[in-house]
Amino acid sequence: MALKIEKTFDIPEPVEKVWAILSDPRKVATCVPGAQITKQVDEKTYKGAIKVKVGPSVTDYKGEVQIVRLDAQNHEIEILGKGQDVRGRGSASMKMTGKLRALDNGGTEVTSESEINVIGILAQMGSRVITEVSNIMFGEFVKNFQARLQQPSDAPEAQASGAESTPIDAKSLAWEAAKGLFRGKA
Amino acid sequence: MIHKTSPEIGGMGHSIKRKEDLRFIQGKGNYVDDVHLPGMVYGQLVRSPYAHARLKSVNTEKAKALPGVLAVITGEDLAKANLAWMPTLSYDKQMVLATGKVLFQSQEVAFVVAEDRYTAADAAELVEVEYEELPVLVDPHKALDADAPLLREDREQKDNHIFHWEVGDRQATEQVFQKAAVKASVHAFFPRCHPAPLETCGCVADFSRATGRLTVYLTSQAPHAHRTVFALVGGIPENNIRVISPDIGGGFGNKVPVYPGYVCAIVASLTLGVPVKWIETRSENLQSTGFARDYHMTAEIAADRDGKMQALRVKTLADHGAFNAAAQPTKFPAGLFSICTGSYEYPAAFCEVDGVYTNKAPGGIAYRCSFRVTEAAYLIERVVDVLALELKMDPAEVRRKNFIPPEKFPYKSSLGWTYDSGNYEGAMKVALDKIGYQQLRKEQEEKRKKGELMGIGISSFTEIVGAGPAHSFDILGIKMFDSCEIRIHPTGKAMARMGTKSQGQGHETTYAQIVAQELGIPAADVTIEEGDTDTAPYGLGTYASRSTPTSGAATAIAARKIRDKAKKIAAYLLECNEADLEWEPGKFYVKGAASKSKTIQEIAFAAYTNIPPGLEAGLEAVDYYDPPNLTFPFGTYVCVVDIDKGTGEVKVRRFVAVDDCGNIINPMIVEGQIHGGLTEGLAIAFMQQIDYDESGNVQGGSFMDYLLPTAVETPHWETDKTCTPSPHHPFGAKGVGESPNVGSPAAFVNAVVDALSHLGVKHIDMPITPWKVWKVLQEKGVAA
Questions:
Q1: Residue A173 located in a structural domain
Q2: B369 annotated active-site
Q3: A118 and chain B: CB distance < 8 Å anywhere?
Q4: Chain A contacts in chain B segment 680-699 (CB below 8 A)
Q5: Which of B359, B561, B632, B648 lies at a C-alpha separation of 20 to 30 Å from A59?
């Protein structure tokens, strides 16, 4: 099941500071709910994992994240992620493009475009649920991302050390997704 | 005409209340999941998340280590017993548990057995399966491309083609088309849908090591056929297998195939020596069991300028999924699809079907349908409307011009069927009068001037049911007769058993009414039992509207055999010749001396207490009925819709259903059948589809996405009837269960297209969702 998700949000921080995080998958991963980078393979490739729990269904993807394109001048990054559930319950891949633009007020506009392809148990829940789940996860991500910006830039990458990540508190994910549907939120 | 018995007897034509409802409405039914046996354990299937993947490893260690887990069975385990594959009902085979690779999402990969359901479910989560994804084939149109992935590596034939089947005269049909003045054509996709019975599939397999007998409580529409399949596949002597099909909560064809879960439960019970219960979840039922339709059809009609049809040409691509598991008669790979000439006369016709494999769940025949008649009826009724548009002629008029006239029955169609009886124009007239057709057309004209969208859809369908005559109908070689055994007890009460199996159709009532009609024993005094292969006579089960045409006929004939013997006893008791006796329901009397009579109850008592010399004791009979032909119920449905230009929502304003199923056993039950079938037809037309995305993920695998109609969506149904008895059936009945599901989709779609036809719309594929209609309205620039 293929999904395309486009999001734009503003951050009241200068573009270079935001770029310092966005351009480093290890730092970005700390903001993605349930995700962790377990190993750096080479300059552009990382091993990682993400746990997603929707209602009764937990998927535990392990895979690779690769930086396909890094354009520091224009503040653009393209990332390719691929993973398989460790117990064979499905797979997922994602191509994400992130782009930053300096705003007149000194802040930064972040634009992201993601193409996600999900196969297996999660995909059976249908695009309406998965889109909602993505929305919720994205909301969490933005919150974490902003919190991350408040930390000193040399803060340790806690999760990159291989510590167990906590999946997004998903007891509510299915419920939130359902509520989103009934609100008619896209 | 059928002689009408007194209300006390309650024979044919009486709307007596359903006997079985007393227990159903009290929650006292006994379904498979109500079966609890001492020491019973529970099975749970592990299913594939992928539509097509190489199976690299199945690790069961963690699952086996969970306390309470008794066994984990894999495809490799079954392969050792030569049970990894099983035959389907269409001379294909399918995997019980996957070995080598998986071919559809939700395919069965392993079977976990545990002391309770929760442990079984938890343990299934612990089974670790390693897959390697393979290219997925979802679009059947690409199945035969040179670069299409090969799905069935197990077959000798190295492509995805299952069968090519054709019937009719190709050349004669081509010639007519070359010279045709008018041609109409439609590409119509009948989407994959699913019966979604209230009760999902399941079983309790109970193998006793003490007796060597296997008892299987099974959600089965065909318990005898399943017993034979289990004997053939499992190598268990058939006398040591007892299949019990208890109360069944709706079948609609979904409970005809043999599913891997049944086989796994049986294997587990044989291995563990305890009863094993396996019950599907709702999503498992929707995602892996017998679906329906998935036919991509093209129909073309060649006609004269004045609207007389000259030829019909049909080409179809059938998507069978990963295994050809369609339950259908051997000789008919596309079922009875060649009934696609419908209610009309064509000098020439040709029909061809190609079946292909895709990475989807197997099945392909189910859903209240006599082997593809639904697809055929939908297609012909759709293309006739397109012809009416081409001719700028009223669709009712086009139908009237081309109906097979009543005097031409029995009528041999150009695709080979001999229709038993019909009066199509008669049924259409009743329907059009009842709905006020002419008035509605005037209203439509006025509404169009105001820019409002309203449509009227007609469907004058013909069914083909009651499979079937042994000379051409069999499933896996077993001829499609059916049976009845009647025993009259000394006190004049009766017990009758059939080879069919009710799933909610009301057999306990209607069969009792047939016995009442034939013997005059009150229907209340006749107990009907089906579904236990140890007690019921052999039969092929209930589907394809075949119970009344086959077992119903057998019941009448068995009763007549009893009546013949009763006459001998009556003559003995009345001290007269048999020739001097007259029958009226419930008693024999001496001609000209009506007071000299013996009731059937008195005769029954004598059969055990005062037996005439030279006659066997008892009063019993059995009949195996091989119908001489199929029966052809028909009808006309008319639907009126209004379309909301703002939302694209279609509102069914009125729906008139006129059915002709010959002589009726219980009018109330027939009406109930029609209400139910129309509601299902509504859902198919507007709401339901088991769809797959490009990766083969099921997109209709739960009730969140696969919608069921409720009272809110369902309009008021107006029903009526005409009566054209079947000339060959013992009491002139034809079968009706499927008619409303077969006939109604075209009426709904024709109504929607009729509402939009002045905008140039000729066809919209089902399900006609508001979104689909709204897009058309946008395209045509008329959206509000």
A1: no
A2: yes
A3: yes
A4: 693-699
A5: B359
Residues sharing a CB contact under 8 Å with residue B304, sequence separation 6 or more, in sequence order: B181, B182, B310
Question: Is the minimum CB–CB distance between A163 and chain B shorter than 8 Å?
Answer: no
* Contact in structure between B585 and B595 (CB atoms under 8 Å): no
Render B114-154 in DSSP notation, one character per residue: ESSHHHHHHHHHH-EEEEEE------GGGTTSTTSPP--TT
Nearest-CB residue to B697 (from A124, A128, A129): A124
B41-47 and B276-279 strand pairing: parallel
Residues B183 and B177 sit within 8 Å (Cβ to Cβ): yes
> What token pair was written down for B670?
């027939």
Query: How many contacts (CB atoms, under 8 Å) link A and B?
Result: 61
Alpha-helical regions (H) of B450-587: 507-519, 553-574
By Cβ distance, the residue of A84, A85, A126 closest to B705 is A126
- Low-confidence residues of chain B: pLDDT under 70: none
Inter-chain residue contact B697 with A2, CB threshold 8 Å: no
SS3 letters across B164-184: EEEEECHHHHHHHHHHCCEEE
Nearest CA in chain B to A3: B693
Residue A159 within a domain: no
Burial level of B393, CB count in 10 A (0-12/13-18/19+)? middle
Name the residue of chain B whose CA is nearest to A85's CA: B130
pLDDT at A5 over 90: no
* Preceding peptide of B767 cis, ω within 30°: yes
Chain B within 8 Å of A119 (Cβ-Cβ)?
yes
Q: Which of B131, B696, B697 sits opposite A88 (nearest CB)?
A: B131
pLDDT for A175 equals 63
Which amino acid appears at position B704 of this protein?
A: M
Compute the distance between CA of residue B738 and CA of residue B195 in angstroms, rounded to an integer.
12
Residue A111 lies in a domain: yes
- Share the mean pLDDT of chain A: 83
| Amino acid letter for position B615 | L
Residue B517 near residue B2, CB atoms below 8 Å: yes
Residues of B in contact with A90 (CB under 8 A): 49-50
Is B313 in the active site? no
Q: Closest Cα to residue B308, out of B402, B186, B216?
A: B402
Q: Could you say which of B192, B242, B313, B368 is catalytic?
A: B368
Of B49, B693, B702, the CB nearest to A89: B49
Phi and psi for A57 in degrees, rounded to 5?
Answer: -100, 120
List the structure tokens of B83. 């049970």
Pairing of strands B214-218, B241-244: parallel
Query: Inter-chain contact B702–A118, Cβ cutoff 8 Å?
Result: no
Name which of B46, B61, B697 to mutate to probe chain A: the one with the most chain A Cβ atoms within 10 A of its Cβ: B697
Spell out the residues 6+ positions from residue B639 whose beta carbon is closer than 8 angstroms to its own.
Answer: B456, B457, B459, B652, B654, B655, B656, B744, B747, B748, B750, B751
pLDDT at A61: 92
Annotated active-site residue in B193, B264, B351, B369: B369
Domains observed in chain B? 21-28+482-625 (3.30.365.10), 32-134+200-248+255-288 (3.90.1170.50), 295-410+423-466+629-779 (3.30.365.10)
With contact defined as beta carbons under 8 Å apart, do B46 and B110 qualify? yes
Q: Are A132 and A54 in contact (CB under 8 A)?
A: no
Place of tokens 């399941």: B202
pLDDT beyond 80 at A163: no
Domain count, chain A: 1
Judge whether A160 lies within some domain. Answer: no
Domain containing A109 equals 2-148
Task: For residues B288 and B258, give the distance between their C-alpha atoms in angstroms, rounded to a whole number.
Answer: 12
ipTM surpasses 0.90: no
Chain B positions touching A1 (Cβ under 8 A) are 693, 695, 697, 699
Work out the pLDDT band at A183, boundaries 50, 70, 90: low
Distance between CA atoms of residues B580 and B613, nearest Å: 19
